[in-house]
Amino acid sequence: MRPIPVEELKAGMKIAKTIYNNSGQILLGAGMALKDSYIEKLNNLNIPEIYIVDEELPEVKVPEPISDKTRLEAIKVVKDTMQDIESQSQINFDKINDVIDSILDEILLQNHVVIHLNDIRAYDSYTFQHSVGVTILSILMSLNFSYTKEEIKKIAIGAFLHDIGKIKVDKDIIMKPGKLTDEEYEEVKKHSLYGYNIIKDVHGISILSAHIAYQHHEYIDGTGYPRGLKGDEISEWAQIVTVADIYDALTSDRVYKRKLMPHEALKIVEELKGTKLSPKCVDALSKHVAVYPVGTMVQLSDDQLGIVIDVNKEDLSSPIVRIVEDKEGNKITEIKEVDLIHNDNLKINRVIYN
Ligand SMILES: [Fe+2]
């Protein structure tokens, strides 16, 4: 499996990872063969790249943290909630509660979930899918703190609704592909307070979850917004969601930028550790995202090429690699696997993109 830009797709190629449409429904399922009409559709949806089964590479299965069914339901709930706010109807807390329960139960049933790659998202549905991505990451990170299940659920609800205030901001500004003017940026910044005001009045939701929406753009050095809170003034729950929010945004395609690979996004988050971001939260993130996700093509320090076929949960930067080319560039046909956790003198030099 490897990512291929949409302009290089050809009919007959097999889809390796499910693609969702703007409503969060499955547009093209994993395993389907591409047709010209599908490629045209992907172009129309501004989807930049998709994951394709590569016949020459060993096939690897990328584990997903939650089922497609729950993910689709969650995306629908975010969308419905935003529509309820727009039409000034009552927010349906029961639906939010049920879907958070499903996400939480599915994650807790597995023993150590590792996030591999972000979904391919159509640009228009970014906000909905981003909410679900941030919720999953926040739950996983929360497992590294000594919270009760009830507390983790409140964090998950805050994460799920963290950007809900964006519905009150002018759509043209939210969807603007280019750089925002200072004035527009001031408008966007208001979404934290808008979100807090919306959530705090929903019957059944804890005020602490509402504070996550209010504080998710604050930084521990006081340079965030809207209030410029510092260190412990920011709730630990909000600090978790801040880190999850940044990581998920960096690894998602947006209109104005191409997504980063996990090792690149983690590097940026690590650079903010201790200045803008809580070290404890950044460490919690690193325990649950695969630096080199299954399916990544890598060059090892001895010049061999390989593909990541599994991760070591105790050290996510040292995966298990199946060698596909030797140092001289000759293809390897017999199965040769290297577990980097047991090979101190061998490391990953770089990620090969195409
Ligand atoms: Fe936000």
From TrEMBL:
All copies of domain HD-GYP, residue ranges: 105-301
GO MF terms held by the record: hydrolase activity
One Pfam family hit: HD_5
Keywords, comma-separated and alphabetical: Hydrolase
UniProt signal peptide: none
Coiled coil regions in record: none
Top-level taxonomic group: Bacteria
InterPro entries: HD/PDEase_dom, HD_GYP_dom
PANTHER family per the UniProt record, alphabetical: CYCLIC DI-GMP PHOSPHODIESTERASE PA4108, CYCLIC DI-GMP PHOSPHODIESTERASE PA4108-RELATED
Protein name (record): Metal dependent phosphohydrolase
Organism of provenance: Orenia marismortui
Taxonomy of the source species: Bacteria, Bacillati, Bacillota, Clostridia, Halanaerobiales
